[in-house]
Design brief:
The protein is mostly helical. Helix content is about 75%, strand content about 0%. The protein is built from eight helices and no strands. α5 packs across α6 (about 140-150). It is globular, with a radius of gyration of 36 Å.
């Protein structure tokens, strides 16, 4: 069975079991970013929009890394890290996450615009970059090759998981847009970003992290040398009884010389 089988169902089961822990992590970030960006635009107009975009970029990458760490934390069935501890654990890798995320996004976008297929290939190969950086404390450059190594041999399966995840996100966005359609356009955009980010991002992080652990376990198992059965102990050699030693020849005393006659 492929290690990617049942990834979405496992992610959904974990989502339902731990949403109280995961959703506040994403809500704090997306709501905070939305409010800060709105305030910057009102105060500084176009320059505030640029600052808001930078803040949003950093915050979104940070929350992705934090959610990967949080998902890894709850894999044993309970949350051991608080929200603050979760963000603090990811802070040392934040620079690598941002660099790798920007490079991957640029490469995938160029591939999609120019030839489409290369962009989809890169999206598949690099899908595990953030879990690799967060959970293996990898550098940005090394994360690309490591993600490719984990995906190798399961690329079509991983691509299928990515497509299904994107379709679910699109379906959710359509439903949310219909629900928010009666409100003003600016408020609809504000609420859509906060709600979709809060509800969808944890599920994506769950899917990618579960996929990472599944593929890593498969690769580790394949790398282990085959265990050969222990050889049966050799039976002790049966020693034949030694032949009895031959009796020494009897030594007869020399005969006495005959008596001399006079």
């Amino acid at each position: 069975m492929s290690p990617t089988s049942g990834v979405l169902s496992e992610a959904w089961a974990m989502y339902k079991a731990h949403w109280r822990h995961l959703l506040p992590i994403s809500l704090v970030v997306y709501l905070g970013v939305a409010l800060v960006t709105l305030l910057l635009v009102l105060l500084l107009t176009w320059f505030g929009a640029i600052l808001g975009a930078i803040v949003s970029l950093v915050a979104i990458f940070w929350v992705q890394g934090a959610l990967v760490r949080a998902v890894d934390d709850i894999r044993d069935g309970r949350a051991d890290l608080t929200m603050g501890q979760t963000f603090e654990r990811v802070r040392p890798q934040l620079g690598s996450i941002i660099v790798a995320g920007l490079l991957a996004g640029l490469g995938i976008a160029v591939g999609l615009v120019l030839f489409i297929v290369p962009g989809l290939v890169l999206l598949t190969w690099w899908s595990l970059i953030i879990p690799v950086i967060v959970l293996e404390q990898s550098a940005a450059g090394a994360a690309f090759s490591r993600s490719r190594e984990l995906v190798r041999g399961y690329a079509w399966n991983v691509f299928g998981v990515i497509v299904l995840t994107i379709l679910l996100v699109i379906a959710f966005s359509i439903v949310l847009g219909l629900v928010l359609s009666p409100v003003a356009e600016w408020l609809q955009s504000f609420l859509s970003n906060v709600i979709s980010g809060t509800l969808v991002t944890p599920f994506i992080a769950l899917t990618w992290t579960v996929l990472y652990h599944r593929l890593r376990a498969a690769k580790d198992a394949a790398a282990e040398p085959a265990v050969t059965p222990a050889a049966a102990p050799a039976e002790p050699a049966v020693q034949e009884p030694a032949a009895p030693e031959a009796a020494p020849p009897e030594v007869t005393p020399p005969e006495a010389p005959p008596p001399e006659t006079s």
